[in-house]
Amino acid sequence: MAFWIVAIDHELQLVQDPNDPKHRAAQKEQLEALLRTDIPERGVRLIAEESKLGRVTIASALADANNPPIPWKNIIMTNAERAAAGILEALRHRPGHPDYATMQFWIECRIPEDEIRENFFVDETLRAVGADAESILMLLGDMPVDAVGERLLTAGHNVVSNHDLFPVRRWE
User: Fold this and answer.
1) Which of 6, 8, 27, 119 has the smallest count of CB within 10 Å of its CB?
2) Across-strand partners of 171?
3) β-pairing verdict for 106-108 and 96-98
4) Phi and psi at residue 139, in whole multiples of 5°?
5) pLDDT at 128 over 80
6) CA 110 to CA 104: how far, in whole Å?
7) How far apart are CA 144 and CA 140, in angstroms?
8) pLDDT in tens, 39-74
9) Full-prediction pTM beyond 0.85?
């Protein structure tokens, strides 16, 4: 299978809101344009997205509007699932520090518990794969993109990652 993994900011992935600041609206338009172009070009047959529960995303709206609709699955790991996996508190208390270069962002540190969450993303996506899903789009926060890509490569899949829409790396 071919996986296209796009790093997203979780606020950016939500559909346009009239109250979005101009810069956010422009970023959302950029994401939508990328998806509108590449979903058909790549023949995407499944979209797996780490997204906020109950919120409509640009990718889910495009999936629904496609003819025929493209299956879409939210692969977020809920707090209940994190607690059951024994990682909830570690993720809540993730170490980090200010981004001293810009003083605008908090830089988070990877922790061992991230691997459990990343395995969850992969497992949930593979469970959702239909018979014709040779091309899968995953939208994830920036931190897990490369780790998820490595897991999929190790399993024998083709992987292309895109970090273009995530202008600032907020993890180390």
Assistant:
1) 119
2) 108
3) antiparallel
4) -115, 120
5) yes
6) 19
7) 7
8) 999 999 999 999 999 999 999 999 999 999 999 999
9) yes
pLDDT digits (tens, 9 = 90+) for 2-24: 999 999 988 899 999 999 999 99
- Locus of tokens 């809540």: 92
Tokens 């899968």 appear where?
136
Cα 73 versus chain centre, distance: 11
Q: How far apart, in Å, are the Cα atoms of 79 and each of 31, 110, 122, 155?
A: 27, 18, 18, 28
Do 44 and 125 contact (CB within 8 A), yes or no? no
* C-beta of residue 85 within 8 angstroms of C-beta of residue 79: no
d(CA 62, CA 145): 21
| C-alpha span between 69 and 61 (Å, rounded) | 10
**Tally of CB atoms within 10 A around 65:** 10
* Two structure tokens written together for 126: 């593979």
